[in-house]
Q: What sequence folds into this?
């Protein structure tokens, strides 16, 4: 019976990933209907916390975008990249990693990817090299960000065992940087140099292509909005406050001694406010401050591209995580009995399960929410779970994630592409190397630091 249910789960995910957009979410609901009506499964708790974090963080990022703060950050990155074009393969991924770590969403990099592609092409560096590892670095930045839904979910899981946000970040951030550096080294000689690539040389015979190649994608032509710098400062203060609260939860009020106290989705059983709730409160407060102090219209925030992307991500997480959690809960005893001995003796094998599920879910937050609680149930130590946390970045494996498709589109030379056999695409090598090395480095750092 479990294999029939698992097949339904996988089919729903595969169809949803092909639909794209909100496809994963709506197909997840079809899976839920089948599980409830045909198999009489009891629905698990929906991932309300993850959804609210995504909406809160993306709303703030959209306010940053509407206020011009995004353009300001892109201008800074652009100046760095254009002044050092020969180092684009090294600087590009560091920029996308920093952007995502700061904002908590990889979608923030749509403005920087065309600049990376342009700088590389003009320097006659194969754009596939910096673009591929830059996309992977942006994904690793998500699991390193203190304001991402994935990290908030991870912190909520490990906090019960006495670990805080700083424990997660001090392992994951340096491990990710080590993994990114390994990924950079893996692409330095990937593919033919542009001056030896017959496809590119053939395109150079077309004057229109040469003209497009030399056109600048510079974003500095338009003047910055008056509140651009202030919006960045407000966003940064919000991120800093979240880090402080995560590192020192004792500074927050405790309600355990209040008469009539009852734990709920915001306040835990020990009386302290949950980290997920604090992220929601702080980020939406920052959104309000950006709108008021920079005189940005709330309508502009709602129309921002990041807001639309966040809404799609929320629906996707809602359906697919709820369906996956229901399947896991209904079959928990069988799953635990079959996986328990293996992950106890070889904890790193759980990282493979995280990676495979993230390949299907296309969401770090969804994978963390769906599978990490199982790791706790199976008795995997918390330091090992933290080390394996970046393994949820398997969303590059099947080339359907928006940042991958955007990078392919931005590369005018055509060097960044999906291969004939689907899986032999430009992001496979740097993705496997970077994520694999990050997890390995995480085990080493967790042993030293935790």
A:
């Amino acid at each position: 019976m479990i294999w029939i249910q698992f097949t339904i789960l996988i089919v729903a995910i595969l169809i949803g990933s092909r639909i794209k957009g909100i496809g994963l979410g709506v197909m997840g609901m079809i899976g839920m209907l089948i599980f409830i009506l045909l198999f009489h499964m009891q629905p698990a708790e929906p991932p309300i916390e993850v959804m609210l974090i995504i909406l809160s963080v993306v709303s703030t990022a959209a306010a940053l975008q509407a206020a011009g703060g995004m353009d300001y950050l892109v201008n800074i990155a652009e100046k760095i990249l254009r002044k050092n074009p020969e180092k684009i393969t090294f600087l590009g991924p560091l920029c996308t990693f920093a952007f995502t770590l700061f904002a908590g969403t990889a979608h923030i990099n749509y403005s920087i990817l065309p600049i990376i592609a342009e700088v590389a092409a003009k320097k006659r560096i194969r754009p596939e090299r910096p673009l591929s590892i830059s996309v992977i670095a942006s994904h690793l930045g998500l699991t390193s960000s203190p304001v991402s839904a994935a990290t908030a979910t991870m912190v909520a899981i490990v906090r019960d065992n006495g670990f805080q946000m700083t424990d997660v970040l001090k392992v994951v951030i340096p491990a990710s940087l080590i993994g990114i550096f390994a990924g950079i080294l893996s692409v330095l000689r990937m593919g033919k140099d542009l001056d030896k690539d017959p496809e590119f040389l053939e395109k150079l015979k077309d004057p229109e292509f040469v003209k497009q190649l030399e056109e600048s994608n510079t974003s500095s032509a338009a003047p910055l909005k008056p509140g651009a710098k202030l919006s960045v400062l407000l966003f940064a203060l919000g991120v800093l406050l979240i880090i402080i609260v995560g590192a020192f939860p004792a500074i927050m009020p405790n309600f355990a001694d209040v008469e009539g106290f009852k734990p709920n989705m915001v306040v835990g059983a020990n009386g302290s406010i949950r980290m997920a709730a604090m992220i929601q409160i702080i980020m939406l407060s920052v959104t309000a401050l950006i709108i008021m102090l920079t005189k940005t219209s709330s309508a502009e925030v709602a129309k921002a591209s990041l807001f639309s992307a966040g809404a799609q991500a929320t629906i996707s997480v809602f359906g697919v995580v709820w369906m996956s959690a229901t399947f896991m809960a209904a079959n928990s005893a069988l799953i635990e009995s079959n996986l328990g001995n293996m992950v106890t003796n070889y904890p790193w094998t759980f990282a493979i399960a995280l990676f495979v599920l993230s390949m299907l879910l296309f969401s770090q937050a969804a994978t963390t929410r769906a599978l990490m609680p199982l790791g706790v149930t199976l008795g995997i130590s918390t330091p090992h779970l933290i080390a394996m946390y970046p393994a949820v970045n398997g969303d590059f494996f099947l080339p359907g994630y928006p940042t991958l498709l955007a990078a392919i589109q931005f590369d005018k030379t055509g060097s960044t592409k999906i291969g004939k056999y689907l899986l032999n695409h430009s992001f496979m090598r740097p993705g496997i190397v970077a994520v694999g090395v990050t997890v390995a480095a995480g085990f080493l750092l967790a042993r030293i630091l935790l």
In short: The longest helix spans residues 305-330. DSSP finds 21 helices and no strands in the chain. The CA atoms of residues 43 and 326 lie 5 Å apart. The mean pLDDT is 86.
